[in-house]
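User: I've been going back and forth on whether these two constructs are worth ordering. Before I decide, could you fold them both?

Assistant: Sure. I'll take them in the order you sent them. The first construct and its structure tokens:
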Amino acid sequence: MYNLSTMSFKSSDSEYGISGEGKAGGAQERVEKLLSRQKFLEKEVERFKIKIAAQSTENIENEVQSINNVRVLSKKVSVQTPAALREVADQVKSKIKSGVIVLGSPVDKKVLLIAVVTEDLIGTYHAGNIVK
């Protein structure tokens, strides 16, 4: 048990970034800086998630199947945004060179899906129809 009457709790306004002059203006500036920092950190987290999802596709060659002489990959990945899913799909596309790729990611109670067809197969397969 602690005896609060003998404990010393010291803090200064400067410790919390509070100055005596222009508190309202300074508070607004601090809030803007914090919001900016939060936005930056959210972007960093998203970049790391993309990187982790991309690392899960490093040995993708083992998962590619051949269907009617076309290389096909369907895989579940863990990303949170459509942009991140597209980034992973582009990385997979560059690794398999020729084929059809379908990636999915569960987000909340929904699923993000993307289908990608490499340049050489665009005349034969349509990515939009594959997703439908």
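The second construct, handled the same way:
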Amino acid sequence: MLADSVTVRRLHLSMSKAKGEAPAPRPARAFIGWLGLRRARATDALALMKVELERQPDNPVLWASLCLAHALLGDKDETLRDAKKSAELLPESRDAIVGPQDSGTCAIALAWIGEKDRALAEFERLLRVPWGLNIYTSRLWWRPLRDDPRFKALVSDPKNNEPLL
């Protein structure tokens, strides 16, 4: 898997040089490698998760994980279907710990498929839910929203850093 990440970075650098562009800054190159690695792992994991889904069709965590894997692979329809199924199987009203965690996973998936408005609304809601999201964790996962002014406002708002309890 690490070889895939290195290959993606090298490919990006060689494409930039061929076009006469300056190479991407180091953090961007690192992210491109990270994304390539995550996509390769998502492809591998998808097959395993589908087999497991046959054994555990009512597992909401598995559906949320499928949602994220499909999002990383760019499959919008499957991502939305998996997110809906996860929420149906385990609403937050039934499990106040795992429910918000699954919702967070699905919200990240929404960001990756370009559903920024829905992802931001869910991000904002989960910041105020116990066992929801913490702005300090999983920052890299929210990268598709990083330049959005609404996301910046949520992250920089001091009330979102206060303890809920």
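Notes on the second construct follow. Residues 26-55 form the longest helix (30 residues). The chain has two domains: 1-55, 57-165.
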